[in-house]
Amino acid sequence: xxxxxxxxxALVMTLALVACGGGSSSTxxxxxxxxxxxxxxxxGDADAYAALDPVELIGADSTGKGAAGQIxxxxxxxxxxxxTGGQLTIDYHPNGDLGGDADLIRQMxxxxxxLVVCQTAPTVSxxxxxxxxxxxxxxxxxxxxxxxxxxxxxxxxxxxxxxxYEAQKLHLLGFLQNATYRLTTxxxxxxxxxxxAGLQIRTMENANHMAFWQAIxxxxxxxxxAEVYFSLQSGAIDAQENAADTxxxxxxxxxxxxxxxxxxxxxxxxxxxxxxxxDALDPAYQEALEQAVTDAIAYMRPQLESIDADNKKVLExxxxxxxxYPADFFDTILGLDGVKNLYTKIDGDTNGLGSKLTAALG
Length: 362
Fold this sequence. Notes:
Strand content: 15-25%
CATH superfamily of the largest domain: Bacterial extracellular solute-binding protein, family 7
Number of domains: 2
Low-confidence stretches: 1-42
Radius of gyration: 21 Å
Shape: globular
CATH topology of the largest domain: D-Maltodextrin-Binding Protein, domain 2
Distance between the termini: 49 Å
Number of helices: 13
Order of helices and strands: HEHEHEHHEEEHEHEHEEHHEHHH
């Protein structure tokens, strides 16, 4: 029966990948000690977990149906059950069933739920160091392999980031990305830096994001998501920024002429667990969960690239012109005084994580 359920879940996730054009908008008591073990059991050797007490964790996300975050979380749940022979399971609740991102993170800190998948922006309110992901265009010139090496490898950046999670009663498990980004849609050609002057662009209500757009001459305007389509249609605003799947989900190709690959913010999901829950897990279960996350990242990364490319094609086929930029475009922007000042500010706000990130990227 468990094999049958695993096959069904795999088929559901495959179908979800085909239909995931409308993604999410982009868009934490004292712990009990785990029993001492001589060493974690090899991942995939289900018999090694048979002597352990079964454990069920509660996991959740608030992404849109079929979005990458949902598929990622459900794959982790399926994989960890497979690795442990059903001894460690995750009761997974997607699409906001248990609340929005802030609600989920608060519940996780209190160990009311144990595991959450969400994008990086919502975590800044709980972990100030996560503002490092607000560094504009910091990843823009790197491929997915290099970014993965930095975000999921063992280096000063990940060590400091892990400590920041622990300080907020959370344990970081990993980051999912494949060098896909938030992009800019507009009703004017944005081929050069000068074209951004005076651009009325809808942004998230994030001070760092707004400071970046101001630094390149645009006029950022926070606006409720429900108002964006009609504001673009009426000309009340000129532009907005989001990942390609979100742009397709909102049908922006109907009201926008250009898709500018500004690559200003990395489209990235993080997965973490309550520190209390993590500390209470047997080391063998900890290793199994880490392996499940590693396997899910490896599975999802090519899917992210495909989702991004497929959705860009939908936008282009819908009449939008795609604008790609050479490396010197990003170099010019990163050399602007306003952008350099923002890097300095964010580095200070994140206890030097900005410097550690740029050093790790090389």
